[in-house]
Amino acid sequence: MTDMTDTVPEESPSSIDPSTLLGGEMTPTKLEEFKSAVFKNVNTVEQLRDWLTSPMARGANRGYAVWALGRHAEAIELLGSESSNPAVALCLATSHATLGNITEVENVLPNRKTDAAQALAWLRALDAVADSERLAADLTALNAHLGETDRKYFEGRVHELNHETEAAIACYDDVLALDDSHKHALFRLAVNVDLRGEDEEARELYERALMAPPVNTACVMNLGILYEDIGNYRRAMQCFDLALQADPENSRARLYRRDAAAALNMYYDEDQERRDDKRNKLLRTPINDFELSVRSRNCLAKMNIRTLGDLVKKTEAELLSYKNFGETSLNEIKEILKNKGLRLGMTADELMNRDLGESSEPAMKPEEAPDPNSPDPMRRPITELDLSVRSRRIVDLLKIRTIGDLANKTEAELLACPNFGQTSLNEIKTKLDEFGLSLRG
After folding, report:
1. What share of the chain in percent tops pLDDT 70?
2. pLDDT of residue 186
3. Can you say how many angstroms the Cα of residue 408 is from the centroid of all Cα atoms in its chain?
4. pLDDT tens digits along 87-117
5. CA dist list (Å): 415 to 9, 35, 428, 431
């Protein structure tokens, strides 16, 4: 899955001059460029906040700045008298819609029936307040002012608000087929698959939606909750931190971050205790529990080596220096240690940090290993099927490495996996059919 560092705003040093960015006549295009520059990374957001404390931050420019930071009540107070400016009108429409004041949105968008930018802002306002009836009616009336992607997106929202989930998902899929970075469609599709319990796909969609600034607080909050659900508390905290950077007054984000931090500390405490118990139990294992040759056993006894813990502290040179202890005995002992994830000459730090225990699953036989050059499709790696995120998750869960491994599964085995449904099953059957294969049974 995509790393969060690839999806959240960068934290690399960068610099902006808000006064320069806001200088001159403000236009809708310039306003979007300003917002994108501000949310380039965490540093630029902080620079804008610092700028707000300077004497230069006054009048309309201060209004644009607080609007970009999501301080909508303050933005309305500062910009309300300049609603005749097209850029200001769009700012005010967003702020009033966020605060649920749809009547005020109507007042600041008087040209919404003839102006494409105002028409789009009006429909987004109805979207924000979840007014499905008016959204459906005005979508029809304003259809000529919309591009195909926005038209399809709002159709999806009407379906979604009317609880027609499948139709809504189909519309969002159509939007992303035309524009795979449409952040509104990405977010709404993520919400819908999230509600259906398809967590892996939802996480991927939320992360893609975050690629386009500014930060969608609801998006990053939902993503943080999903990470918390799978026990990835550190990643969840990153999400909640990002929400707080975008909205410092977000009490919900602050509460969730505190809970994730507490869970992270508890998780590490419990995990460390489990690993310590496992390590100590293993190192206390008597040497006599292992099937050693008589010569090896006698030599170790004479060296006062009673447990695995005693043994791993010795180096190869120390063992070989002992009388009657040769290469055969050394190799015998090294093999036993290897099977336990140990080796000779381990330091105390290594023993503390190593996740000790039985060795991993038996090595795959050469004839069972994936071979991308094999003429037999059963031997080819599973990656050649190019499965969706949801299906790949099941493949990983079942430790499937080759196409043949997958073909040897039955429909019932796959459908028994969590979050695996008929759509994923159909996808896998179609992919196997391309190789002339099918599921067992």
Report:
1. 88
2. 93
3. 31
4. 999 999 999 998 999 999 999 999 999 999 9
5. 38, 46, 12, 17
For residue 174, give both structure tokens: 């159509």
Task: Identify the CA nearest to 428 among candidates 23, 398, 171.
Answer: 398
**Per-residue model confidence (pLDDT) at position 419:** 63
Torsion of CA 376, 379, 385, 390, to 10 degrees: 150
147's tokens: 């591009």
- pLDDT under 50 in the chain at which residues? 1-13, 357-363
Q: Which two tokens stand for residue 203?
A: 């996480």
Q: With a threshold of 0.85, does the pTM exceed it?
A: no
Q: Do domains 284-353 and 366-434 have the same CATH topology?
A: yes
Instruction: Enter the DSSP assignment of 402.
Output: B
Asked if 112 and 89 touch (Cβ cutoff 8 Å), the reply is no
Summarize pLDDT for 378-391 with one digit per residue, the tens: 888 888 887 776 67
Peptide bond into 214 cis (omega under 30): yes
What are phi and psi for residue 325, nearest 5 degrees?
A: -105, 110
Fold of 284-353: DNA polymerase; domain 1 (1.10.150)
HSE toward the beta carbon, residue 201, CA cutoff 13 A: 24
131 dihedral zone (left: phi>0; alpha: psi -120 to 50; beta): beta
Rounded Cα distance between 56 and 75, Å, is: 16
10: helix, coil or strand?
strand
The residues spanned by each domain of the chain are 1-129, 284-353, 366-434
- Cα(150)–Cα(411) distance, integer angstroms: 39
- DSSP assignment of 286-316, as one string? BGGGS---HHHHHHHHHTT--BHHHHHTS-H
HSE-CB at 395 with a 13 A cutoff on CA atoms is 24
Burial class, 21, CB count within 10 angstroms (exposed 0-12 / middle 13-18 / buried 19+): buried
Mean pLDDT score of the chain: 83
Fold of 366-434: DNA polymerase; domain 1 (1.10.150)
